[in-house]
């Protein structure tokens, strides 16, 4: 698993500050559409970027709660939402939400449930803390949707196989519809958000992910530091030759608590 200690949290914060992830947050906000006065939960709130936007949307007559296991992440989120005292940062687990039944009007979870082993329990907990008729937005990635142009296909395959070790459910979106229905939700919308980098810009999502992945895979699947550097060099060569392509699908489900 990835570590979200002090250094890991700051790396994640820098990744989430990229223009690509900022655009994703705007897309999520347009679909979730938090309203003034609503109570909204962010499961896996991380460094608090999305939580801060939700807090601004619901205003002082509403409330937001960001739930996160990492103390380092919670410190970043608390600093980011310090100007909105109705934004609360809570330490906890997605499979045991520390809130009474029916607390929230809406909830959101982006890139979180793919890390949760007990996905059935986590979705049941999400349903429990939503009021009847409350809504939720869930966004996760299917690892098989990745398109990343490389010359050394075998090395690339090994890197991706090693990278998958940081996930519990690398292909979660294809099973989410049934899981959501069984947890007590009605699916009201399905969307695909594409992370697309047609070039290797310095602040692009893919170049920041490339560094994170190269660090993670060393020592896994037989990969060495030299392998990781060769993989990075291959991708940079594709950029230099003008044939760089990165694309990843993120699947969005909008649901209502029955």
Number of domains: 1
Percent in helix: 25-40%
> How many DSSP-defined strands?
8
CATH topology: Rossmann fold
Pfam family, one: Methyltransf_11
GO molecular function: methyltransferase activity
Keywords: Methyltransferase, Transferase
Domain Methyltransferase type: 41-138
Note down, in words, how this protein is organized:
There is one protein chain. The model has no long low-confidence stretch (mean pLDDT 96). The chain has one domain (6-257): Vaccinia Virus protein VP39 (Rossmann fold, 3-Layer(aba) Sandwich), CATH 3.40.50. It has 258 residues and is α/β, with parallel strands linked by helices. Helix 8 (205-217) packs antiparallel against helix 9. It has helices at residues 6-16, 19-32, 49-58, 71-80, 119-129, 153-163, 176-182, 205-217, 225-240; strands at residues 39-43, 63-68, 87-91, 104-110, 130-141, 147-148, 185-197, 246-257. Helix 3 links the parallel strand 1 (39-43) and strand 2 (63-68). The two termini are 34 Å apart. The protein contains nine helices and eight strands.
């Amino acid at each position: 698993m990835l570590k979200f200690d002090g250094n890991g949290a700051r790396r994640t914060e820098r990744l989430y500050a990229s223009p690509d992830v900022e655009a994703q947050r705007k897309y999520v906000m347009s679909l979730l559409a938090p309203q003034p006065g609503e109570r909204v939960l962010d499961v896996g709130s991380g460094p608090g970027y999305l939580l801060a936007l939700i807090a601004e949307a619901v205003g002082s007559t509403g409330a937001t709660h960001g739930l996160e296991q990492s103390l380092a992440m919670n410190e970043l989120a608390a600093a980011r939402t310090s100007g909105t005292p109705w934004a609360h940062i809570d330490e906890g687990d997605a499979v045991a939400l520390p809130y009474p039944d029916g607390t929230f009007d809406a909830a959101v979870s982006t890139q979180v449930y793919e890390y949760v082993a007990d996905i059935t329990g986590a979705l049941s907990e999400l349903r429990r803390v939503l009021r009847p008729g409350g809504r939720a937005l869930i966004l996760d990635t299917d690892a098989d949707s990745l398109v990343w142009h490389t010359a050394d296909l075998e090395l690339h395959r090994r890197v991706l196989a090693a990278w998958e070790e940081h996930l519990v459910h690398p292909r979660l979106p294809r099973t989410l519809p049934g899981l959501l229905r069984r947890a007590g939700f009605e699916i009201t919308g399905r969307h695909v958000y594409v992370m697309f980098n047609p070039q290797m810009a310095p602040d692009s999502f893919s170049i920041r992910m490339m560094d994170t992945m190269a660090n993670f895979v060393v020592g896994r699947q037989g990969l060495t530091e030299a392998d990781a550097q060769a993989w990075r060099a291959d991708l940079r060569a594709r950029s230099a030759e003008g044939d760089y392509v990165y694309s990843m699908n993120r699947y969005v489900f909008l649901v209502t608590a029955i």
